[in-house]
Amino acid sequence: MKHMVAPSLLAADFNHLGAEVEMINRSEADWIHCDIMDGVFVPNLSFGLPIVEHVARVATKPLDVHLMIVHPDQYIQPFARAGASHLTVHWEACPHLHRTIAHIREEGMKAGVCLNPHTPVHLLEEILPDLDLVLIMSVNPGFGGQTFIETSLDKVKRLRELIDRRNPECLIEVDGGVNAVTGQRLRAAGADVLVAGSALFGATDPEAAIRQLKNL
C-alpha cells in the first residue's frame, strides 16, 4: 500500500490559515492533521472546535484530529459535528478505552489511539482489533519542531508485527520530527501515515516538500 502524508496544521501560518488549507487541498497530501492541546495533558495550548469547524468548510481532504487532552470522551460528538473524519485519543488519557473507541465509531469517525514515547506497544494488544489506526509519537507531545526520538523506529517495527497478527487493516501513523530522512526510515520500519509540520510548512515550496514526502 502506498503510504499517506498528513500535514500538521500546528506548524501552519495562522495569519493565512485559509491559504494554508487551500495549499494542502492542491497538494498530494492525503489528510490534514489537527493537534488539539489543552495545556493540561500536554504543556501547551493549540486550537479547538471553532478552528476545526472553519478548516472543515475549506478542506477537501479528511481531517485527522488528534486529541492531546484530558477527558476526551466529552468531546467526541462535538468533533464529529465539527467535521473530523478520524479521531485519535491517547491511551494515557482513557481509563475506559474500549468504551471511548466504540463511541468514536458510533459517531461515524475512524478511531485511533496514540502512544506517548514512553508507552510500550504491547499495551494495545487487546484493543487493536477495534482500531483503524495507531499513532506513535516520535517526540514528546506538546510542541512542534522537536528532534526525532530514534527509538521510535524499533517501536514502529514492534507495532507492525503486532498489527500484522491482530488487525492487518489498522494503519500505523507517526508524528514528530518527520522529514524526508526520518520519513524514509519510518517507511522501512512499517509506518503507513507520516505526519509532518515544520518540514513542510517551513519549506520554500511546501507543495514540493509534500510531494517529496509522498514519493519516498
Uncertain segments: none
Number of strands: 8
Output the number of helix runs: 8
Order of helices and strands: EHEHEHEHEEHEHEHH
Task: Give the strand line-up of the largest sheet.
Answer: 1-8-7-6-5-4-3-2
- Approximately how much helix is present in the residues? 25-40%
Mean of pLDDT: 96
| Largest sheet features | 8 strands, parallel
Strand content: 15-25%
Distance between the termini: 13 Å
Structural class: alpha/beta
Rg is: 16 Å
Oligomer category: single chain
Shape: globular
Task: Write up what this structure looks like.
With 216 residues, the protein is α/β, with parallel strands linked by helices. It has 8 helices and 8 strands; from the N terminus they run βαβαβαβαββαβαβαα. The chain has an 8-stranded parallel β-sheet with strand order 1-8-7-6-5-4-3-2. Helix 5 links the parallel strand 6 and strand 7. Helix 2 packs parallel to helix 3. The longest helix is centred in the C-terminal third of the chain and has 15 residues. It is globular, with a radius of gyration of 16 Å. The two termini are 13 Å apart.
